[in-house]
Design brief:
By secondary structure, the protein is an alpha/beta fold. It contains nine helices and six strands; from the N terminus they run E-E-H-E-H-E-H-H-H-H-H-E-E-H-H. A six-stranded parallel beta sheet has the order 2-1-3-4-5-6.
Amino acid sequence: MSQGLTLTLLHGWGVDARVWQPLQPHWPEGVGVAAPNWPGYESHPALADPAELSTTADLSASADIAATASAMAASLPQNSVWVGWSLGGLLAVAMTDHLPPPQGIILLGAGAQFCSPNGVTPQALAEFTSAFQRSPSAAWRHFLRWQSSGEPEPRTALKRLHALLGKTPPADTPTLAAGLGFLETLDNRERLQTLPCPVATLAGENDPFLNQPPAGETTAGEQMAQAGHCPMVSQPAALVDALCRIAAEMTQPGEAS
């Protein structure tokens, strides 16, 4: 069922591609996996002025989305299913304005917007952004605790994240600030209505950023048991199984919806 699949894994805010490493032992034979970094993370060069990303009011036609798409184009092939986690999901959908669509998009722990009544409220995000402006490193550490809080063993999940990422943010402050701007303003509701490829949602049943999968936004929705926002560290085998199954359904003739 998974033979010949190619998945492109796109990380979220404040982490880099190392967050996908726990999945490595579980990928079935014949599945191709790529995990690029967003601009400004680890060794991937930052955009020329990433701070501008957080000051753009209308991101639907933003030159900054186009710049991000251009920087990522070689890492986002059409002949793969893009798996966008959290901010990575928001950006994956937005970049279809500027890049050829993939075989499908799986939104992992993501919906049409980051803020929602059932998850992170605009006020909560604004408070976090203020905390980030005062102390980026302290806010980053809090964010890791926050997103680990829905896992069956939050302290263990947090330790695994730190083991993967280290004790300092994997991107500079302007890049992280730009990402917070995207989280605050990026709205994919219209895009998801006309997306030129299949799209599905997958979320942990205890995701503190969602609380429940977004309703009526995409063509499919599924919850993972005993998982929160970070199933790659708490349920890696189950996450691989779910991603491969959903991606296979997307890419089989006659299965796309």
